[in-house]
Amino acid sequence: MKVRERDKLLLGLGTGVLLASSLRVFVAGAYASLEKTFFYGMKFPSGLGILLFLFAALLVGRLSRKSGAVIMAAYALALLATDATEYVHLIAAFALPVSLALVKELDVKYLAMGLVADLSLRVLAVGAEPADFPYTRVLLVLFILLGAFALWKEPGTLKRPGFGLYAFAALLELGLIYPNAVMRYSGMTVYYLPEFVGFSLLIALAILLGPYLARKPTVAMALLIIGSATLFLKPLSLVGLPLALASTIALVENSKGSRGGIIGAVYLFLVATLALGAYVGRDIGLPFMEDRLEVLILVVSVIYALSAYGKSAEISLPSVKEIAGPLLGVVMASIVVMALFHAGPTYMGAKKDVLVWTYNVHQGFGPYDGTFNGYELVNLLAEQKPDIWFAQEVVGGMIGNGYQDVPLFVSAHLGYAYEYKPAVEGTYGIAVFSHWHMKTESELNLPSVGEARPAQKVSIEELGITVVNVHMGLSEEERAMQAEELLKFAEASPVAQVIAGDTNAEPNERAIEILTRDYRDAFPERPPYTFLWERNGVVDKENIDYILLKNDWPAEVKDDGCLCDVLVSDHRPVWAVIELP
Q1: pLDDT for the residue numbered 93
Q2: CA–CA dist 338, 46 (Å, integer)
Q3: With b meaning 16 or more CB within 10 Å and e meaning fewer, what string describes 219-232?
Q4: Which one of 14, 23, 285, 348 has the minimum C-beta count within 10 Å?
């Protein structure tokens, strides 16, 4: 391989990984920062990252290539030091426009290789954020540093990306390059490692073969729009979205000629905000967006297609070797994870004493600084070994949290079976985990004035019990209304012996009074708190997570407690050892 060709390859790998990673970290960090401002009045970093991003979009065309390399290296080293996205996203605000400036110069085949390299890291992290787990973090940083090294050696300045490339980035950040997001968007609520690995190979092929569509831009535009529209015809989107992704890659060269970079940066910010509105629209003043992610993806696809319309470009098609190499990387990553992790649930026989947890995992974030908490969560569960875990704020591929798939990586690491009840968009909700065979009996979203609040009823075969998992609303009146509905839900056939979850209700509240008409608290004495957020003189201490047992159910609570010193989430794990009758 010639030196120049090698540098193009290194730059392509580094650019693709940088683009995908900086998009995830920037959005996650901005989301986490603004959440702290909204709930606790924290003034830093708040919206600073967004302002820096817009400034960087103005500045990037004036930067030397060596300055771009320094920004790439700074971002990589910051990630190596910490996954605190509230702070790293301030550097990602500069790294993202730099990555798009490099996309403008690269042959699309090299960009495709980089995006597939990022996908390989996702496979190695079994659906988690690569920056969260030490072994994938090191590889992620290495890819970006190698790209920075190749860029450092080149003279000249960076080219300013136009609107079309920001439209390209917006479409990628809506989840098309993440296998778990596509599967969950398409209605797959429960799957395990083999399905994830298999679908990752399909996504890799879509990315690598995309350049072959580039010579037929009109066809690519049509396939992009038709593929995105299959979201309204689930599960056809399992095929349609990979076609849309291939078309997205095909149109990159055509989108490079557009201007209006600062408008594109504003557009990307607006798309990410609207995408978050699909999940929490009523809480952030965008109620019209709730559960409308399919519409947003289709509209963004049309805008991207229009940005490339009427433009022609010369395409350097990848060779068989250039397709086989990155694909082999995904295959090797798949072989490694299939050998090292659980391919599916590991089941056990019935037992008399059952350790039950309820634990809200805060959308994949730690309590402070926007840190990803998957690595810490897996280690905590491995140490404590709950038999049944009622989990809330479980993300399966959500834009605000780096597209982490909590059910998948918990199952892969620890062998849990799970039943997942998304509240919105197939990627955010609640889940029950255990090492027994489970079946979802029924599910619903409770009446709500804020974000959707889910409940699920699950039967556990070997134990012969039925349980209800719930996440209730933020206002006291709303919770009282939801408690009445939840009680009816739990007592409908088959009757639930256990209700557990994050009620957001204090013990003396009307909602708890309603639930304890027919259910009793597993705790004879409540823990000091089950939720704690404490930073810069602001303290929010609440007692809101419960394990409730049916009054006429002759089970006994042998022990109970709260892991109140655990800082994996803003909530604390609440547990009880229940002796089954």
Answers
A1: 98
A2: 40
A3: ebbebbbebbbbbe
A4: 285
What's the residue count for the chain?
581
Contact by Cβ (8 Å): 463, 425: no
Answer whether 0.85 is exceeded by the pTM.
Answer: yes
Lowest-confidence pick of 2-16, 325-339, 510-524: 2-16
Question: What gap in Å lies between CA 347 and CA 435, rounded to an integer?
Answer: 5
d(CA 323, CA 162): 28
- Adjacent-strand bridge partners of 420: 431
Strands 465-471 and 498-502: parallel
Query: pLDDT tens for residues 64-90?
Result: 999 999 999 999 999 999 999 999 999
φ, ψ at 398 (rounded to 5°): -105, 140
Phi, psi of 367 (to 5 degrees): -70, -25
Whole-number Å distance between alpha carbons of 409 and 394: 12
d(C-alpha 481, C-alpha 489), whole Å? 13
Alpha-carbon torsion (445, 447, 449, 455), positive or negative: negative
Residue 304 near residue 168 (C-beta atoms within 8 A)? yes
Cβ atoms within 10 Å of 449's Cβ, excluding its own: 14
Residue 510 CB neighbours (<10 A): 15
Cβ neighbours for 211, distance < 8 A, ≥ 6 positions apart: 108, 109, 112, 249, 250, 315, 316, 317, 318
> In three state form, how does the secondary structure of 467-510 look?
EEEEECCCCHHHHHHHHHHHHHHHHCCCCCCEEEEECCCCCCCH
Average pLDDT over residues 327-347: 98
On the question of pLDDT at 536 being above 90, the answer is: no
Q: Structure tokens of 7?
A: 């540098």
Closest CA to 283 of 186, 402, 428, 426: 428
Distance in angstroms (rounded) separating the CA atoms of residues 276 and 532 = 25
What is the Cα–Cα distance from 275 to 297, expressed in whole angstroms?
9
Question: How would you class 509 by CB atoms within 10 Å of its CB: exposed for 0-12, middle for 13-18, buried for 19 or more?
Answer: middle
**pLDDT digits over 164-217, tens only?**
999 999 999 999 999 999 999 999 999 999 999 999 999 999 999 999 999 899
Residue carrying the six token digits 């076609």: 243
> Given strand 465-471, what is the order of strands in its sheet?
438-446, 453-460, 465-471, 498-502, 545-550, 519-521
How far is 169 from 258, CA to CA, in rounded Å? Answer: 14
Under 8 Å between Cβ of 476 and 522: no
